[in-house]
Specification:
alpha/beta, 6-stranded mixed beta sheet, 14% strand
């Protein structure tokens, strides 16, 4: 599961939800407690705008809920690697194997089955609640919800606000000064408007000109440097969100400015692997980062935990403690990252099958637009 911390952060920082009750639900008590500790610290650092609760009982979590936020995975990385490697072994050319291509078909079958189980509980305990789904493949899961259930729902993703932040930072324009619109499907979305609302300037021509710079030619030397960086966890994070030969190709050849990065838009483009001699494998970054984020704070370190020294060594200036949304620090320091974080949810056994239930339920006023996001993790 990738979006637990960001979902909590969105609720806490949405002014329209002040005074609401946020219930964290998981069937694994240990992981639920870890998620709750994170949520409590984030909520307290923001002045405790919401009332926090937790439970492993779906009936207790859902009864009376006005809104349900759901992001669930089934054996995320074990199955994702199969989705990626097996089709490629038989001639498929997938850049990610998560939301597009043959790997996404298998991913959909798992996610849809799991999400429909969650929807059944929503229909049972809070039939009037509105579901906000972040489970991937988001477009296919949302389609299944609409076809198979009566649950009111919408699919949402952070790719557009992340894209705004990424481009605003590179243009050296304040994020708050940007007004943007985008169109497309999940992970294949393009900016149709990107404007400095303070000056009225249309920034899309500036972005297109920026991608014409020689640094975006991705010479063999640049690719070798990226490949070396990709060997460490911190370096792989830099590569995932800054090595963009496919984005550059789309901007230069078609004039379209993607909201996301190569690993996302490349799932829908058959030439994704042809624009550079080397492309990273996204899960090789996301899996160790996820395991590092979820490691136990004490005890014998796992191989994944030993990556922390390399991650610390790869911090750069813009990742500084003062930019953390909750202003916390740890023994290793803390930083704001453009990388997705991983939350703490696993399986819910249901007879012969099993499903995941990392949901948050919100009881209170109508939710406003998700106005704040931060990808942030810290040991509980």
């Amino acid at each position: 599961m990738s979006f637990g911390p960001t979902m909590v952060n969105d609720v806490v920082h949405t002014a329209g939800l002040s005074g609401a009750r946020l219930v964290l639900h998981d069937v694994n008590r240990e992981r639920l407690d870890r998620a709750y500790r994170f949520a409590a610290k984030l909520n307290a650092s923001s002045g405790a705008p919401v009332i926090l609760d937790r439970t492993t009982d779906p009936a207790e979590a859902l009864t009376g809920a006005d809104f349900v936020l759901s992001s669930a995975e089934f054996g995320r990385f074990e199955h994702w690697r199969q989705d990626y490697e097996i089709p490629n072994r038989h001639g498929a050319r997938q850049i990610t194997g998560e939301n597009g291509g043959p790997g996404a078909v298998f991913h959909s079958l798992r996610s849809i089955t799991n999400t429909l189980g969650i929807c059944a509980d929503i229909e049972r305990y809070c039939p009037d609640a509105f579901l906000i789904n972040l489970t991937n493949p988001m477009s296919r899961v949302t389609l299944a919800i609409n076809r198979a259930t009566k649950v009111r729902n919408v699919g949402m993703c952070h790719e557009m606000p992340m894209g705004i932040n990424r481009l605003a930072r590179r243009l050296r324009v304040k994020r708050s000064d940007i007004e943007a619109r985008a169109s497309g499907i999940n992970h294949f979305t393009f900016f149709t408007e990107f404007r400095n609302k303070r000056t009225g300037e249309d920034l899309l021509p500036t972005i297109r000109a920026w991608f014409e710079k020689p640094v975006f030619d991705y010479s063999p030397r640049t690719q070798r440097v990226a490949r070396r960086l990709d060997r460490s966890l911190g370096g792989a994070g830099l590569v995932e969100f800054n090595y963009m030969p496919l984005v550059t190709h789309v901007v230069r050849e078609h004039g379209l400015v993607p909201c996301s990065v190569d690993s996302h838009i490349g799932e829908y483009l058959p030439f994704a692997l042809d624009v550079a001699d080397w492309m990273p494998v996204p899960m090789d970054f996301h899996q160790p980062f996820s395991e590092l984020a979820e490691r136990r704070p004490r005890g014998r370190p796992t191989p994944e935990c030993r990556c922390r020294c390399r991650l610390r060594a790869c911090r750069v200036r813009r990742w500084r403690p003062s930019s953390m949304p909750c202003g916390t620090t740890s023994r290793r320091g803390s930083w704001r990252s453009t990388c997705p974080t991983t939350a703490t949810f696993r399986t819910w056994p249901m007879g012969r099958s099993s499903r995941l239930a990392p949901w948050s339920t919100v009881t209170g006023s109508t939710p406003s637009t998700w106005t704040h996001w931060a990808n942030h993790w810290r040991d509980g």
